[in-house]
Amino acid sequence: MSDDEEQYNPAAHKKLLQAIGNLGNVQHIRKSTRDERQPQQDEFQLFKSAKSTQHAPKAVGLNDLVQILRTSKHIETGKKLKNVHSTKKVLEKPLEKPAADRIKRTIGYEGVKKKLGRWDAVVAKQRSAETQIFPKPTETIYVNTAAHAKALQTSIKSDLGKELEASNKKLRELRKAQIGDNTDEKALAQQEREMLQKKMTRDELYARRRELAYLKMRESQKSAKARMQNKIKSKKYHKLQKRQKILEQMKEFELLQKTNPEAALEKLDALEKSRVMERASLRHKNTGTWAKNLQVRAKYDKDVRKDLAEQLAVSRQLTEKKLDTDSEDEKATKKMDPNEQEDYDPMNPWMKSKSAAQAAPQQSAEEESNWRKYWTERNENEKLLAEHCAEIKEVEKQQKVQKAKKQSLEKPIKKKKKPKAVVENGWLVEEVETPVKVKSIDEIFEQHDENIHDRISKKLAKLRKQAEKLKEPTKKSKKPKKERDELKNLKDLTFKKTKQRVEIDEPLNQEEITPKLAAQTAGDLTKSDEKPTETTQTAVTAIDPKNVTTITWKQTMRSSDAMNNALAEDDAAEYDEADAAAERQLTISQAFEDDDIIADFNKDKTKDSELKNTELQLAMPGWGSWAGAGISQKVINRRNKRLLLKLAAPEKRRDDNKDNLYINETTSKQARGHMVSSIPFPFKSLADYEASIRAPIGRNFVPETAFRMLTRPAIITRKGQVIEPMDESELLKPERRLRHIVDRRIKRLQEADKAK
Amino acid sequence: MKVKMISRNPDNYVRETKLQQHKVPRNYDPALHPLEGAREYVRALNATKLDRVFAKPFVCNLSGHRDGVACFGKHPKLLSTLATGAYDGEVRIWDLANRTSVRSFVAHDGYVRGIAYARNGERLFTVGDDKTIKVWSSQAPDVGQEEEPVNTILSRHILHGISHNRKDNSFATCGEVCAIWDEKHNDPIKTLKWGVDTLHTISYNPVETNVLACCASDRSIILYDQREAQPLRKVVLTMKSNKLAWNPMEAFNFTVANEDCNLYTFDTRKLRTPLKVHFDHVSAVTDVDYAPTGQEFVSASYDKTVRIYNAHQSHSRDIYHTKRMQHVVCVAWSLDNRYIFSGSDEMNVRMWKANASEKLGIIRPRERANFNYQEALKEKYAAHPQIKRIARHRQVPRHVLNAQRKMRMVKDKELVKEANVRKHSKKGKVPFVSEKKKHVLREDV
Q: Where is the protein localized (chain B) (predicted)?
């Protein structure tokens, strides 16, 4: 500032001000606003504002100012201003009011929705509850604060315990005094603590520091190494690295497959994914710099051309659709088997390694990891080859040993050339022709790589099949996605009701009030037609009243009998496992069982009439034998004869001489009116509904406790108590301690069920 | 001669005290009870018949008002207290146990539009056509003293309804605007407006007490949050909603009584389609109130009947009416889930049993067990045609039947017409629209 003041040049300053003033140099003539007193008023009420720059339509931009400043000596300030202008963000114009309000409303509604969503679990639980008790038992603790009330016990120690402690302490002190021991216990304790918290010596500190330093150095070394490794450009290195990785993955995968097939599946997915990624990235195309460089030379160099072709082949292999390759692989393997038998050659190192791999895949995995071992094996093979050559030599007995050997070698090898090429695409068999020649390490790697690929693809195929099998049920369960359902949470949380109740949701049978009502007979009432139910009924099946009313009791049906249920379930499980196949066969035989329908028909008829015409024995066991057992059989027979109810002469059936007709004589029209004609909502199967009807609930048929449990009302309220609305404490409520004995019994049963 | 005699040990059959139940040695082997199903069925049939025999829901009639009853106020703590407001501005406090009117005073000029008790029941808020909110003490004035409001608040807008927050000291009124008030201030804390001229009724959510809802004259239902500066959402139905009641046990559900003879239960989070449409009324539904258990609600209608619905079913389970009851204007369900109150045009307040055939008075445990058994049987055999017929048989006034017949005819005609149109138009052009979706026009954000 002081510098500025020193160099203050009034003329320059004025010029600057003028320049600023002239920025908006348009002349504006406006109506004058009489906002302050003025001595003169223009007659046209117009004036040219002197400070028109303020009100100019073209406001002074920051750039203008900067321009001016640049010309003057305040270049720095201008730059600063420019910087400020470019870095600062201008606040956006606020939204229009309706739009802003709409956003506010949406946000508010979302909040409320979320708040209300908290109640989903509570409501779902309440809806599925078999019995609801109102008012809701609260968790409020009432404490008697009256003066005479006993103080609240807060200590865990009992009075007796405290007394005992005090007396023990006293006793100890007394004993000490007797001995003459006057050491302070507190001081001792302090000493002990200090001993434990011993200070470090100087050497120890040094050692520790050194250790820390070493650790730090190691860490930095490692990080540096990692960084370096990332920068390595050598192709070979990366190739090796990659192979190693693949091998490791293979091993892991095999292990997983044995131990944890699910995890293996996941792993498989991951592998697949990586393959897909590679496919997507489309490496191995001849577009890299390496390939481009080679392309230049390709015209003149045969080897280069070959390399490029190989590269393209690889890319083709990668970009192929997987399914196709699989099928090809399978075909290939199938083809390979006879080939292998045909031209299995001990001389061929590849074949041997393959057979070995097939015999012991684990071993081979180890081999693959150990290249050196492979090389030693190869050398052995060469020896074998030499022996083989010698044999051939003897058999053919040719003069020129060396030539013959070469020729003999050529022939069998050429034979297997083609199948070989089929099996392992990309592998040139030329090298095998001259097995003695040491192959480049790259080729060997490639060969192994291919082997690995082969095996991986096979495994993948196998596992894919498994995966598909696993996936099928999940696909079925998945429904097509709909728009977002707000009540999804509530629906998800709903439990299946343990006790289904019939819900009748149809209009009341309304009838006009008439004085003649009393005269109406029951017969008239039955006439009043019932409207068809509006609820969706899945299946309409007639229910036989016999099934409903007369029951062959099964112990397993008794809901209270947990033991029997368990046994039945066990049986069922065994049955499921063992006899599923047998059952399938049975169903087929059953299907053809009823071929002779007419005979069946007649059988039914005769059975019916037999039933109808049997004599009834009215004697009951124990009746009349008051003195107990040991009554002579004669007496019994006599009595039984007396008690035999003889019926009238057998009636003829109404359909007796009508072969193709069966008239059911046991049904009654009266009973029909009492029968349920369709399965009521919410039941879904006839079996379910029948089961709900079958079990009796009366005192006469079930024990008292079961009776109480079965007849528990759905809602229990207490007279004279206000039922408060749902409280927030319900959200965090711990499970309520059940007071009612029936509740507790039910809970115990449920827990027993769960334990099974 | 040998005398055969049965001798038994009296210990086996004589009770030690008279409170002890008789020990009945019983064999539950089902083989010995071949007719148990049939017996239970007959018992269920008898229970159903008895249920209808004893179905006498009408408890008493509270007369005293000199004009039609307009609104009710339930005391949140006392079951025997009910406040009613009439068209002539009179408010009466009833002692339900003695069936007498304890207090009566003229609170407003013109209609009493709404009554609400404060959350502890010590104060009573009334709103009327004279644009005032008056606060009254629950205690009757001493003998010789006149009835005077504790406080009178002049409102700038017309008032149509009032509702008190269940958990704090705020209450809300509706009319031209929805206003949130504090008990201690004479000016509203907040006014919420959303381009509607009249809001008929307002109701606080009893569980999530910050949420409230209004029914407006533009056929819409508007949701508010008393903490927000803006209303939350609006859903427009085909016709005007007269009253709104929140489910006290399911925080997100509410039911509206609509002018088109139906009631609609909504989930607050999904206003586009109602959860349930409740049919059966034959004229505009004027009022609705939930049972404190949240399982059922009662509705009053212009067709002079009161109906009781299960909250999750679309048809009523019961219908109450008497010869002299005229258009029912307001209805309330008592907080102990036992009684229903209905106020109608002909100046009477009626008290009904919520469960028509319930026995009043003391019920001994054994009696209770028997009732429970009967209920269980009725439920078990509910789908059997005879039992269903008897249980759902009701006598209704002729005008209701006629109206019903007419409505059915109209509906059938519409269905036939729609089917015909569908038959003669391009496939998929006339879509099937579910009954639920027909009644909601749009949801405004």
A: Nucleus, Nucleolus
Q: Which amino acid is at B79?
A: L
Strand stretches in A69-120, DSSP E: none
- Beta bridge partners of residue A274, listed in sequence order: none
Q: Is the peptide bond before A682 cis (omega within 30 degrees of 0)?
A: yes
Smallest CA-to-CA distance from A407 within A384, A433, A430 is with: A433
DSSP letter, residue A437 = S
Q: Give me the residues of chain B with pLDDT under 50, please.
A: none
Distance CA A523, CA A517 (A): 13
Q: How many CB atoms lie within 10 A of CB B26?
A: 13
What is the distance in angstroms between the Cα of B149 and the nearest Cα belonging to chain A?
27
Q: Using one digit for the tens of pLDDT, what is the confidence trace for A724-753?
A: 999 888 888 767 677 777 778 888 888 888
Tokens of A80: 């600063």
Task: Look at B223 and A109 and tell me if their CB atoms are within 8 Å.
Answer: yes
Given a contact cutoff of 8 angstroms between Cβ atoms, the answer to whether B315 and B280 are in contact is: yes
Backbone phi and psi for residue B287, each to the nearest 5 degrees, phi listed first? -150, 155
**Contact between B36 and A703 using a beta-carbon 8 Å cutoff:** no
Name beta bridge partners: A429.
none
Phi, psi for residue B175 in degrees, rounded to 5: 170, -110
Say yes or no: A694 and A546 in one domain. yes
Angle formed at CA A698 by CA A697 and CA A700, multiple of 5 degrees: 135
Chain A, 525-564: which have a CB under 8 Å from a chain B CB? 525-526, 528, 530, 548-551, 553
If asked whether residues A270 and A409 sit together in one domain, one would say: yes
Helix (H) or strand (E) holding A84: helix A75-87
> CB neighbours (10 Å) of residue B108?
23
The per-residue pLDDT for B68 is 95
Q: Which CATH number fits domain B58-353: 1.10.1740.10, 3.40.50.300, 3.40.50.960, 2.130.10.10?
A: 2.130.10.10
Q: Which parts of A397-487 fold into alpha helices (H)?
A: 401-423, 430-433, 441-477
Both A434 and A555 in one domain: the answer is no
pLDDT at A541: 42
Residues A508 and B392: beta-carbon distance below 8 Å:
yes
For residue A445, CA distances in Å to A167, A239, A374, A442 come to: 86, 9, 11, 5
Q: B37 and A694 in contact by Cβ < 8 A?
A: yes
Among candidates B31, B210, B233 on the partner chain, residue whose Cβ is nearest the Cβ of A105:
B233
* Burial degree of B221 (CB within 10 A; 0-12, 13-18, 19+): buried
DSSP B270: B
The answer to whether the CB of B173 falls within 8 A of the CB of B162 is: yes
- Any domain includes A43: yes
Token pair listed for A230:
């990332």
Backbone phi and psi for residue B117, each to the nearest 5 degrees, phi listed first: -85, 145
DSSP B165-224: -SSSSEEEEEESSEEEEETT-SS-SEEE--S-S-EEEEEE-SSSTTEEEEEETTSEEEEE
Q: Which residues of chain A have pLDDT under 50?
A: 1-2, 52-56, 323-369, 404, 409-437, 475-479, 516-578, 589
Residue A505 and residue A510: Cα distance in Å, rounded?
15
CA distance B136 to chain A (A): 23
Sheet holding B112-117, edge to edge: B112-117, B123-128, B132-137, B151-154
Tell me what pLDDT residue A529 has.
39
Is A632 among the domain residues?
no
Nearest CA in chain A to B393: A509
Whether residues A457 and A544 share a domain: the answer is no
Collapse the DSSP code of A472 into the 3-class scheme (helix H, G, I; strand E, B; otherwise coil) and give the result. Answer: helix
Q: What are phi and psi of B411, to 5 degrees?
A: -65, -45
Query: What's the DSSP call for residue A513?
Result: -
Contact between B111 and B94 under an 8 Å Cβ cutoff? The reply is no
Tokens found for residue A118: 């908290």
